[in-house]
Amino acid sequence: MIRLDGGTFRMGSDDEDGWPEDGEGPVRDVELAPFHLDATTVTNAEFGRFIEATGYKTEAERFGWSYVFHLLVPSKIKRKLGERQRVDGLQWWIAVEGASWKKPEGPGSNLKKRLEHPVVHVSWHDAKHYADWAGKRLPSEAEWEYAARGGLVQERYCWGDELRPAGKHMCNIWQGDFPHRNSAADGYVGTAPARSFSRNGYGFYNMAGNVWEWCADWFSPTWHLPESEATRVNPKGPVTGQDLGKPGGATRVMRGGSYLCHDSYCNRYRVGARTGNTPDSSTGNCGFRCAVDAPPAV
Predict the structure, then answer these.
(1) How far lies 181's CA from each of 48, 153, 176, 268, in Å?
(2) Which of 19, 107, 124, 229 shows the smallest number of beta carbons within 10 Å?
(3) Is residue 89 situated within a structural domain?
């Protein structure tokens, strides 16, 4: 874990191509106490140790299925399912029976070459169970953004204002024609190892792209608009989340984007971007990292 001393930073985004309906803005000063945050997302190897120690069953395992991106679904499974398991309006997601953290693409897939990749197909509830077991917690949304900015002030990405400085790929996102063709110019079609690409200014890996990361907060696009101590000093978010029309109702915050983000569809790999999902949801592009409180600097 990496210690951050906290202090005041500029949170949020007023990007012209942002998503104001998500509550990205206004840009505001937020004060944080010191905390520690994992340098990487929790990996399959780490999550496996939790499962072995506790016997915990993830929600995807209990439900019996999870969402897998269509290009990653084995052709045999895709032919069997046809169109009946696709998500209306998001046809690139297929509900695959047997898909879970240990079988990311469903039956026949495994983690043999992905132990150091971020664990996926974990719900918010699963992430919290892991954090509790590890003696940690999920970061607040404000803590997550503070860490992701890496000391930069209102830059567009975790590393600066250019997506590919000097032509260099800085994160794992989609290249090509979404959702039909991914050129994998950055080296990956699905997840990348948790320690891929350059660290940001504070030493964190992959806080843009790769996998969405659960935060502790409930999601609301308006809760932070009143200027109050609750929204500006160690903010923890609202007491419940907004219903985004997804099955299950209220939603929890997710940050950072994923390997499926593309500027033609979802440019939420910008450091100020945000979204939400129901806390029992799991997909092949969502993971998490953990935080703990830290004593004040001496």
Answers:
(1) 32, 35, 6, 19
(2) 229
(3) yes
Which helix or strand (DSSP H or E) is residue 50 part of? helix 44-54
Q: What is the structure's pLDDT at 81?
A: 67
Measure Cα distances from 106 to 49, 100, 146 in Å.
Answer: 21, 7, 35
Tell me if 259 sits within 8 A of 191, measured CB to CB: yes
The pLDDT score that the predictor gives to residue 50 is 98
Q: Which domain holds residue 153?
A: 2-293
SS3 176: strand
pLDDT digit string (tens) for 10-26?
Answer: 999 999 988 999 999 99
Is residue 197 within 8 A of residue 169, CB to CB? The reply is: yes
Residue 38 tokens read as 């994992």
Q: Considering its fold, how many domains does the chain have in total?
A: 1
Across the range 241-264, mean pLDDT stands at 83
Contact (Cβ atoms closer than 8 angstroms) between residue 114 and residue 47: no
214-224: pLDDT as tens digits: 999 999 999 99
What's the pTM? 0.94
Helix (H, G, I), strand (E, B) or coil at 142: helix
CA distance 251 to 5: 29
- Cβ atoms of residues 283 and 120 within 8 Å: yes
Q: Flag whether pLDDT at 79 surpasses 80.
A: no
Report the interhelical angle of 44-54 vs 124-133 (nearest 10°): 70
**Percent of the chain having pLDDT more than 70?**
94
Neighbour tally for 232: CB within 10 Å: 17
- Give the residue ranges of DSSP H helices in 166-261: 229-232
Q: Does residue 104 have a cis peptide bond before it, meaning omega lies within 30 degrees of 0?
A: no
DSSP state of 210: S
Q: What is the CA radius of gyration of the chain?
A: 18
- CATH number of the domain encompassing residue 92: 3.90.1580.10
pLDDT of residue 74: 84
